[in-house]
Structure formats: C-alpha cells, structure tokens
Amino acid sequence: MSGLGAIITAIVTPFDAEERVDEAAFVALMRHLATQGSDGVVVAGTTGEAATLDDEEHLALIELAVRERPRPDFTVIAGVGSNDTRHAVKLTAAACELGADALLSVNPYYNRPNHRGLLAHYREVSRAADRPVVLYNIPQRTGADLPNEFLAELAQLDHIDAVKQANNANLALVDGLELYAGNDDVLARTLDLGGAGGILVASHVVGPWMRRMVDEPANRQSIDQEIEGVLAALGIAPAATTAKAALSLLGHQVGAPRLPYVEVSEEELNIIRTALAALDLVPHA
Length: 285
Fold this sequence. Notes:
By secondary structure, the protein is α/β, with parallel strands linked by helices.
C-alpha cells in the first residue's frame, strides 16, 4: 500500500455567494471526507477548479489543507500542474514549502510538447520537488498521451513516484511508479492489478463503498456494481459541477462553480438525486 493512501478524493473548492473561496466550508468538507473512507485529498486539482484559481488562492488552499488536516496521517496532495514549465516549477516549490505531502503534476496541456519537451518539463519539475510527484495522464484534457513506456522513462527521474492514470486504455502497472486510478470506474480494476488505489471524485459521496473496495477484495466487484449508478450520474456533466450538486443534495455548503463551469440543469440534478436515492443517501422521490 502506498504511503499516500488508497482512497484519495480530488476535493472540490467551495465558493461563497460572491465566488470567494469558502475556507470554512473547505475545512468542514475535508473533515467529513476523513470520516467517509478518504485517506487524503488532492487540493486544487481539476475537480477543485484549479484553472479558475489565481496563485494566491491556489497556494492559500494548500496551506489551509496542510494546517487543518483532520488527522496526522491524512494526506494532502497539491495540484501543481501547468502548461508553463516555469509556473509548474514555481507551484511545485511553493507547495513543498507549504508542507504538502506530495504533488500532482499534469503534463502540459494545450502546448502539446513533443517527447523531448515533456521529458525536459518533468526534469525541471523533479528538480523543484523534494517529495513524491504523482504524474497525471489525462489525454482527453491535455491533448497528449503519456504512453506506459514513457511513464517508465519518467520514473527514472528523482521524486517521480506515481501516476494517476486517466487513460483507461493504458491502465497497467509501470516499473518504478505506484498506480492510481484516474477514473472512478476503474478503481476495482486498478486494485485488482495491484495498484495503490484511486484519485477519485465519487468518493465525495460514496466514500464508504470505495473504502470497502480496498478493504474487502472478495466483495470488490459487487460493491463496484452497487455504485455504478452514482458513477454514471456524476459523469453527465463536468465533475466539479456534478460533485458540487451531489454534495449540496447531501447538505454540504459548497456553493456554485465558477465560470466557465455552470451549475447542473434541473434534469441533471434529478438524475443525480435518483442515483443517490438508490443508495438511500437522500430520500426517495
């Protein structure tokens, strides 16, 4: 088992009515997740709407999570990716200084550098780090895939210790890297392969089920099937928006997303509500 934990929630960033970061709501949600099976959180990741946070907000959230972690062994992984290597290096160094336990580093999006450019980018990131770096392969957002052979090459760099694999076609153990499911629907497969766990969204609402998938391997497939409806419902719109909608239905104050994300429609909300009701998480209509 990875020292970072098995069930890591890519925590949403709550905003108040004026679209300011709601620090009290963030701490309350983090504490709640710690009681619902999460071993830690990724702060300021995609689901945390990092793209709409300025650096001051971004780093303040990391500092807050480190300071207010629910228990000493609760892992704080800081999102530090950027398509500007200098910016990624700056965020990486700052997150280390703030006490994050590890760093999540997506490959540069939009720019789509070639193999040599990616290697040079991660070489600079690794030099700025003094703790584990989790690579994040999500070609549907970055426009470029990190093949497993290349991941093995990156694993030779100092501090590059794990990968969040969000390309299901690449899901496999890679020499030198811990494997984390990057998509909720392959958590069971990842665990069956001997992976460390998952960096997940649905653990906001079905954390106890996902915890059981780790702790009860004999029941893993049946548990996976039990939560299929929730996973599907959370996939009908961007994850930050559906996770916030589900959390709001469960009584958590997380606010609306920032543009360009918008709140789910009434039809989408009803789909999410129905899926949660199937697990008795909210009242049946």
